[in-house]
Amino acid sequence: MAFATSQVVRGFSSSAVRNVVIKNVTIIGGGQMGAGIAQVAASTGHSVTLVDTSDDILKKSIKTIEGSLKRVVKKKFADKPEAGEEFIKKVVQNVSTSTDVESAVQSSDLVVEAIVENLKIKQDLFTLPQHTIFASNTSSLSISDIASSTSRQDRFGGLHFFNPVPMMKLVEVIGTPATSQETLDSLLNFSKVLRKTPVSCKDTFGFVVNRLLVPCIMEAIRLYERGDASKEDIDIAMKLGAGHPMGPLELADYIGLDIINSDPNNPLFNSSDLLNKLVAEGKLGRKTGEGFFKY
Ligand SMILES: CCCCCCCCCCCCC[C@H](O)CC(=O)SCCNC(=O)CCNC(=O)[C@H](O)C(C)(C)COP(=O)(O)OP(=O)(O)OC[C@H]1O[C@@H](n2cnc3c(N)ncnc32)[C@H](O)[C@@H]1OP(=O)(O)O
Ligand SMILES: NC(=O)c1ccc[n+]([C@@H]2O[C@H](COP(=O)([O-])OP(=O)(O)OC[C@H]3O[C@@H](n4cnc5c(N)ncnc54)[C@H](O)[C@@H]3O)[C@@H](O)[C@H]2O)c1
């Protein structure tokens, strides 16, 4: 761990700040998001440890990272395929894997949690060295609630990445009333080192993007559920009429319907019978081969 003095991003204080320089990163959860975060951190020179519950899952995570890197180098090294291969090799070498969370976090400057969206399971993760900053990638849970199981709330924040992580430029940096300025500055700076654009937000339900995006997705589901328009036409309408890269139903499948439906009792989130039915049938979207569409 080291400290650095740096300027923070546009929109934040312009005075010099003190932040922890992050070199060793542990990502807990090697699913869609964890693998993406590991890839981006390893591509920007960090030493990454990816943790999940089994070696089989971790093998799949590494395969996902390799597949995504191939797409990245196809463009980045279009004229130099050998340099592209070398880049992939180097990045993958920066990622080690582990099923033992306690040993994986020992030399970590930052731990990013990207496991299942379940408060109790997230709270159970914390036996961390004192200097380590802990950040959750939760989509819908309160950062304060997750942090409440620890005695280190000043070094606890939210680092909300977007799917697919290698392509999406935004990171939401979430501070609770207990998060220290040094932690926030470190998370903002880390996001920039990953070549992302950070925005900061209080620990409010849905942060910025999900607070605005999820109602749009849910209204699309209801339109379809009522039979007001076909699922194909709803998606075409939002792509061509609103300039969205994906239609809302395709995007819901892409995110995962279980993730979309992960906080159904929140008063700000009105679920739908159709969404509940698909989730109950295990039709979770792209990752299970079927959601609103078949893959
Ligand atoms: C009331 C409030 C309630 C709030 C709380 C409720 C709780 C529930 C919360 C649920 C929601 C959770 C959401 C989550 O927290 C936050 C999110 O992540 S939201 C999702 C954000 N993502 C998007 O919106 C994605 C939109 N889509 C796109 O940007 C694009 O479609 C795409 C994915 C980039 C793909 O691009 P396309 O052009 O469509 O398709 P291509 O396949 O041709 O790809 C283009 C280009 O990109 C390269 N590429 C694509 N994917 C990857 C990858 N994974 N890795 C590397 N490269 C990739 C591809 O190779 C192409 O490259 P090119 O050919 O151009 O060189
Ligand atoms: N899917 C999205 O579009 C998206 C976007 C932003 C944020 N998120 C958030 O990121 C987190 C992960 O989402 P995802 O889509 O990657 O889920 P996922 O189901 O693809 O991956 C979750 C991974 O966590 C692992 N895991 C579960 N419990 C664990 C534990 N105790 N220790 C170690 N690993 C464990 C699982 O084996 C799995 O590989 C969630 O909090 C979600 O809300 C998701």
TrEMBL record:
Keyword field: Fatty acid metabolism, Lipid metabolism, Mitochondrion, NAD, Oxidoreductase
GO cellular component, one term: mitochondrial matrix
Gene Ontology BP terms: fatty acid beta-oxidation
Residues the entry annotates as binding CoA: S68, K75, S139
Gene source species: Amphilophus citrinellus
Compartments, as annotated in UniProt: Mitochondrion matrix
3-hydroxyacyl-CoA dehydrogenase C-terminal domain: residues covered: 206-295
Gene3D superfamilies in the cross-refs: N-(1-d-carboxylethyl)-l-norvaline Dehydrogenase, domain 2, NAD(P)-binding Rossmann-like Domain
Pathway terms, separated by semicolons: Lipid metabolism; fatty acid beta-oxidation
Protein name listed in UniProt: Hydroxyacyl-CoA dehydrogenase
Gene Ontology MF: a single term: NAD+ binding
Residues bound to NAD(+): G29, G30, G31, Q32, M33, G34, D52, E117, K122, S139, N163, K287
Domain 3-hydroxyacyl-CoA dehydrogenase NAD binding positions: 24-204
Taxonomic classification: Eukaryota, Metazoa, Chordata, Craniata, Vertebrata
UniProt record similarity statement: Belongs to the 3-hydroxyacyl-CoA dehydrogenase family.
Catalytic reaction annotation: a (3S)-3-hydroxyacyl-CoA + NAD(+) = a 3-oxoacyl-CoA + NADH + H(+)
UniProt-annotated site: Important for catalytic activity, residues: H160
Superkingdom of origin organism: Eukaryota
Pfam families given in the database record: 3HCDH, 3HCDH_N
SUPFAM superfamilies for this protein: 6-phosphogluconate dehydrogenase C-terminal domain-like, NAD(P)-binding Rossmann-fold domains
Primary location group: mitochondrion
